[in-house]
Amino acid sequence: MSEQPFPIDVVISWVDGDDPAFKERRKQYLPAGADKQDDIAGATRYRSVGEIEYCVASIRRFAPWVRNIFIVTDRQVPDLQFSPISSVKIVDHTAIFSGYEHCLPTFSSRAIETMLWRIPGLSEHFIYFNDDCALIRSVTPEYFFQEGKSVCYAHWFSLLVARLLHALKPKRNGHKPVGYKDGQVRAAAVLGERRRFIYLTHSPLALRRSVMETFYAGHPEVMAQNIRYRFRHQDQYNPQELYYLLAHRQGLCKVVSAKGKVLYLKPRGGEGYVEKKLLRFDSEPGAFCCCINSLDQASEADRQKVKEWLDKKILKA
Fold first, then answer.
1. Cα atoms in the 13 Å half-sphere on the side-chain side of 245
2. pTM for this one?
3. In whole angstroms, what is the distance from residue 76 CA to residue 71 CA?
4. Taking CA 104 as the corner, what is the angle to CA 50 and CA 86, rounded to the nearest 5 degrees?
5. Which helix (H) or strand (E) holds 164?
6. Which residue from 15, 30, 68, 128 puts its CA 20 to 30 A from 195's CA?
7. CA–CA separation, 125 vs 151, rounded Å?
8. Which CATH code is given to the segment(s) 8-315?
């Protein structure tokens, strides 16, 4: 491992949707019918079935050079079976929304992610993990930062094509679903991009705190607009996309293909889907991370298969 020239922290956003106190807070603010819409406020957006345990354990094992692991929560503390809780720092939403308490409680990941750069004591260079992402092999800081630039595992995508695809998207529950790509397109619109955007993958995201701090200092209304919604909304932008477009303009971003490096599994396919995906994952020697999305919606049998695979990759390798 090459010498690390600067500290790097990790930030993980997490919520336990089964916590009775959290359920009660959510219920108080939930718009009528929103709990039936998975893209807005469905229960699956908040369920945790142990993914964060693998996330933290993988960072501790495969990226021991990480200085701090910050877990951002809403008055909760995760039960980390594979790592001591003392190895992480818990950050409550009140800390990052200081001065904007009127926006709390919030149940929108995009609002929370907009404020992550405000974590007290956060290093300039940090890596953002969703709790369903994990490392599966040893990595060096150069996987995420090279010559001060954020390495972004993604590809460029046409805004025209993205908007056409959105226009063709069928409605569900009376509206067009608010998808992952839609938030990225919205970020491009905020910055006045006309031709293309960086299509992000579900992977750890390397970020620089000062880029967001400087931008929001000059455009406080852009930050305020994104955090005003308590639940995901079609007018919210993806703050990581905003960051990467800004960083690219400043020569601080390196876009790298995710093919063969980043693995993605959403275990809601037909019979045999999970087995085929995991076999394909094992055939990718260059893969360094994975995202197991919506594991709570998998069958118990498929959940067990995924956890056994994660055990093998992270805990027993």
1. 26
2. 0.93
3. 10
4. 40
5. helix 159-168
6. 128
7. 11
8. 3.90.550
From 275, 37, 19, 11, select the one nearest 118 (Cα to Cα): 11
CA distance 133 to 137: 13
Query: Strand, coil or helix: what is 33?
Result: coil
Helix axes 239-249, 209-218, angle to 10 degrees: 90
Q: Side chain identity at 50, as an amino acid letter?
A: G
Dihedral of the CA atoms 225, 231, 52, 300 (nearest 10)?
-150
Q: What does each of the 317 residues of the chain score in pLDDT, given as a tens digit?
A: 446 789 999 999 999 988 999 999 998 998 876 666 555 555 555 567 889 999 999 999 999 999 999 999 999 999 998 888 888 999 999 999 999 999 999 999 999 999 999 999 999 999 999 999 999 999 999 999 999 999 999 999 999 999 999 888 888 777 777 889 999 999 999 999 999 999 999 999 999 999 999 999 999 999 999 999 999 999 999 999 999 999 999 999 999 999 999 999 987 767 889 999 999 999 999 999 999 988 888 888 999 999 999 999 999 86
With b meaning 16 or more CB within 10 Å and e meaning fewer, what string describes 248-257? beeebbbbee
Residue with tokens 């460029």: 156
